[in-house]
């Protein structure tokens, strides 16, 4: 089986809570005695018609009510990693949203230890190496982000870096300058969602004020030619999520996605799945979809796979990065 889907790749933009499939949500709801406002998986899936980022976030945070125990988080991550492996993923840098759980009374330790159990055995079980990135919810206060960072200190051996997600507009990166400085002082890597719905200025702020190494999404950077030139010059990776952009109405249809022009501009872009249970596909499906809808050919798919390893936080293990890159070069389609 040598399909574009199976090309070896890293997934760098994946919210673990966004891998909660309706079937698992109902199973966990039954196990934990949580009432869901949907009759069945079909009715839940029918609610996945989003008008923008906020309309998705409302459902996404609501469904997290079913995640209560460390075992729930282990099962969620295990299910994702098994699927990811089948889609060619060799390395995954996985986001989680601590505040979305601590606010519901689920302790941070429960979340991290549950996820870490699945991640620590992922290489052996699924052949996927992993890292964990803790995201701050940007529509909560800067103080809450700082409290979250402090609460995470006992678990930092499981966490490679920090990110910034949730409702973007009105919550510029600069709001989190202090917590990012503190995260940097703890030796954490830094990324942030920017330019998904927010303006190009948010991408600049993420770079200049927060000092991020990668931009998650960065779609709207394309509105600012000087910014594009800078991103190219500084080789700043952009972790694109084309299926997410369609479902959250950032682009009308996949055929309109700027991925081809971003590649042509020389940007270091990667293709990722964001919240695959909600957006209609895992990362291999996404590679397939951009191939079909955007005419991204085999050698460009290979470039995207190469970029994913170049942009990954594998600096502590360059031998591994080199092995993965060699797998990309050796891959034969069909
Ligand atoms: N954008 C912002 N926050 C998120 C997303 C996203 O696409 N998915 C989960 N949290
Ligand atoms: Zn995201």
UniProtKB/TrEMBL annotation:
Source organism of the structure: Streptomyces lavendofoliae
Identification of the protein by name: Adenine deaminase
Any one Gene Ontology molecular-function term assigned to this protein's record: adenine deaminase activity
Pfam family, one: A_deaminase
CDD domains: ADA (cd01320)
Keyword Metal-binding on entry: yes
UniProt: Zn(2+) binding residues: 13, 15, 193, 274
UniProt superkingdom: Bacteria
SUPFAM superfamilies, alphabetized: Metallo-dependent hydrolases
Gene3D superfamilies: Metal-dependent hydrolases
Active site residues of this protein: 196 (proton donor)
Site (Important for catalytic activity): 217
Domain called Adenosine deaminase: residue spans: 8-321
Keywords: Hydrolase, Metal-binding, Nucleotide metabolism, Zinc
Biological role stated in the UniProt entry: Catalyzes the hydrolytic deamination of adenine to hypoxanthine. Plays an important role in the purine salvage pathway and in nitrogen catabolism.
